[in-house]
Design a protein that fits this description.
Order of helices and strands: EEEEHEHEEE
Low-confidence stretches: 1-25
Number of strands: 8
Largest sheet: 5 strands, mixed, barrel
Structural class: mainly beta
Shape: globular
Strand order of the largest sheet: 3-4-5-7-6
Helix content: under 10%
Radius of gyration: 15 Å
Length: 159
């Protein structure tokens, strides 16, 4: 079954046919939260705006889980997130796309975390969720972002 996305113009499109430039906002519930995945790379396109900050991440040719991922300190959030368990079960994606569209939280939430604006060319890594069985477009909803030696939790505001 192809996932569908309602574009603000009122047109329904299959996600697998969208490029990063033409995809649009959709709900968090469409992401498989039972299988966190890890991505890292370079931001090659950034849209720092509402309703959600978006970027295109270019992955290196070889991607590996950091050996310290499960031990990384995580910030407290107002949402009940078992961050250590989430990091412990994080895996690499099975698909081989070199570019992924990343969806972050709204600007208001990033402001609560005092997360700096990510610029084109920045190195960034994250743990998040994609679609069930990695079907459709290479899109990730970021749960934790690792940037400049800090970790930002994006499910809710800081506790």
């Amino acid at each position: 079954m192809r996932r569908r996305l309602f574009i603000q113009t009122g047109t329904w499109l299959g996600l697998s046919g969208l490029s990063a430039a033409t995809r649009a906002h959709h709900g968090w519930s469409s992401f498989d939260q039972s299988r966190p995945i890890y991505l890292e790379g370079q931001a090659v396109e950034v849209k720092w705006r509402n309703p959600h900050v978006e970027l295109v991440l270019e992955l290196p040719e070889t991607l590996a889980l950091p050996t310290d991922l499960a031990q990384r300190p995580l910030p407290a959030q107002t949402a009940n997130v078992d961050g250590p368990a989430l990091l412990a079960k994080t895996v690499l994606p099975t698909r081989r796309d070199r570019r992924w569209a990343i969806e972050f939280a709204p600007l208001f939430r990033l402001g609560q975390w005092q997360m700096p604006e990510i610029r084109t060319g920045a190195a960034v890594s994250m743990v998040g969720f994609t679609f069930k069985d990695e079907q459709g477009a290479a899109v990730l909803r970021a749960e934790y972002v690792f940037l400049d030696g800090r970790t930002y939790g994006l499910r809710s505001g800081p506790a």
